[in-house]
Phosphomannomutase/phosphoglucomutase
Amino acid sequence: MTHQFHRTLLREYDVRGIVGDTLTEEDARWLGRTFGTRVRREGGTKVAVGYDGRHSSPAMEAALVDGLNAAGIDALRIGLGPTPMLYYAVHALEADGGMMITGSHNPPDYNGFKMMLGTGPFYGDDIRALGEMAAAGDVETGHGTNENVDIEDQFVERLLEDAPAKEFRVAWDCGNGAAGRVVEKLTARLPGQHVLLYTDIDGDFPNHHPDPTEEKNLEDLRKVVKDKRLDFGLAFDGDGDRIGAIDAKGRIVWGDQLLMILAEDVLKDVPGSTIIADVKASQALFDHVAQRGGKPLMWKTGHSLVKAKMKETGSPLAGEMSGHIFFKHRYYGYDDALYAAIRLMRALSRAGVSLTDLKGAMPNLINTPELRFEVDEDRKFAVIEEVRARLKADGAHMSEIDGVRVNTDDGWWLLRASNTQNVLVARAEAKSESSLKALMTMINDQLEASGLARVDT
């Protein structure tokens, strides 16, 4: 008995595919069987399982549990909720691993899986090895049990442990994603005024797509903050592990800017510590951390990759431009947008300033958001290699941590391949509009040299 996964399914730091096409329930069953085998061979006996609000998720969860049980693993089924609640369950229930069924911020017809082995990330070669195990039929056989575990209220209590007493007036936009029910319970316990948007969990995402990195998805939040004269607004992605924010003036506070605020607060308690940010983050963040006595470290994009680097370096805080924020300080070291919201309130309370004031005081650099454009799945990594080779030949000053990040006298530009979608991601930051235009020209020249269309900015 063997199984072959679609060649695009097993990604660098999670599993992601189109339901009924590159991802089926049989795939879910085999993921459970192979991952369960790995856990069992490491001496484990139980795995926590959760799922998001996508229509395909309950059936995927049932198939996954079948696979775990067939490998002799007991399943602790926490049900519907955000990804960080699954991560929390692994810690709180002392499970030997965790599997979350989620399509995150991808379109409604996608779904996927995020995994933990023990309390650490499971990614890269470990994920690819599951494909080799399935193809060889290299799996254990057994009869695991099932247990439904309601951990939602316990999770909310843990989030509240670090909430400040200060009253804030906040809008929360859940985008009909999996965080909705937890946000309802959380805000009911927080002081201040809380306006909730789209907390009904709905896999059709009828109001807007749950991706806070896309400015168009923050328009409803912006309007509510302005109309009700709130202090700020928060938004979450489909599975609740990424955060977006709007200040009282309606300005977006991007992921790297949130990390600037959170880093300053953490460095008060852990002076001199390493703060990690991904290659898409502003140079202003790295400079800010250094100015506050911290050690800034640029690293690869990807939640599993960042978590592994945190463990290696002992970093208390890390973040990504996309809104993944990871707290080891006072927490568990995984990305949790709901906990990040609580810590933002704590940081603002301790600093005695508003988010609007902090946003206004940030360096006036001019940058693009993440510019994403489709490219064939089989071509995306090859394009990056072509660009890298040309830049090396030209003697460019660049970082090759993740794709290419090219530094110039006036700023920097980035081009990297997404590990979760068939897209390339570009970003540029400069000191003036003319310099930014010049950087974008450099990006477009490289794209054209590889036979791709220019990026429309």
